Amino acid sequence: MTAEARAVYERMHTSLQALKRYSVSVQSSQDEVLDYGYKLQHNSQATLDVQAPTHLRAQISGEAPRLIVYDGNTLTLASPEQGYYAQTPAPATLNQLVNGLIAHDVEMPLVDFLSQTRQAQFLAGVKRGVLVDSEQIDGQTCDHLAFREPTIDWQLWVSQGAQALPCKLVITTRYTLGDPQYQATMKWNTNPGFAADHFTFVAGKDAKRIPFTRDSVAPQQEPQP
Predict the structure, then answer these.
(1) Which among 58, 31, 23 has a CA at the least distance from the CA of 184?
(2) How far apart are CA 170 and CA 222, in angstroms?
(3) Distance from chain centroid for Cα 180
(4) Residue 87 — pLDDT band, cuts 50, 70, 90?
(5) Are 103 and 219 within 8 A, CB to CB?
(6) Which among 3, 53, 106, 149 counts the fewest CB atoms within 10 Å?
(7) Where are the domains of the chain?
(8) 160-199 in b/e burial notation, b at 16+ Cβ within 10 A?
(9) Which biological process, per GO, is one annotated for this protein (predicted)?
């Protein structure tokens, strides 16, 4: 990896590590490859509200609208449109929770990206990385990075200025029919005002509680809280 690319990435890592409270809006698309290489694109929108180290609220729309709420003790997965929700005991910190979500295949936009970039793990598989140029993304001047791993290529746009935050991410899966892509654009609010009950889940009067598919979302290698 070039020194220029690493320097941009390290600035982003430092900025993300410094964030204790933020809200990020995500517009994402995911390719689905059908027979004969025909591709469908699935789109979704999400807002992730975080108050580290113990609070998360994710509102996700698209083909499968859902709500994810974590209050430091309990994780709630809800489908308000269908009128049901499930709850389970959760780990004591957000980092542990995110690792558990990944381990148990609970889908949430950018959950692995935000976790790994904050923990400096995202470059582990990179074989080559370069700083391509600077470009405008939603009115912001961003550094454009390109990386190659054994089976994927990914591009990252990072805002210039005092806070270096990710603005856009594109992941291309190589050696798979159709070279499917995942793409996400991000808009950040680094000083949001959250109401006192923002991270408290309150079920609707007709909502039905159903069993959680796992006893806990704690990482499998760690003891239950």
Answers:
(1) 31
(2) 32
(3) 19
(4) very high
(5) yes
(6) 3
(7) 3-209
(8) eeebbbbbbbbbbbeeeeeebbbbbbbebeeeeeeeeeeb
(9) protein transport
Instruction: For residue 96, report the phi and psi dihedrals to the nearest 5 degrees.
Output: -65, -40
- Tokens 């904050």 locate to 118
Note the pTM of the prediction, 2 decimals: 0.87
Please tell me the least confidently modeled range out of 5-9, 105-109, 203-207. Answer: 105-109
- Average pLDDT score over residue span 194-214: 91
Residue 220 has pLDDT above 80, yes or no: no
Rounded Cα–Cα distance for residues 1 and 7 (Å): 10
Contact 184, 36 (CB under 8 A): no
What would the mean pLDDT of 96-110 be, rounded to a whole number? 79
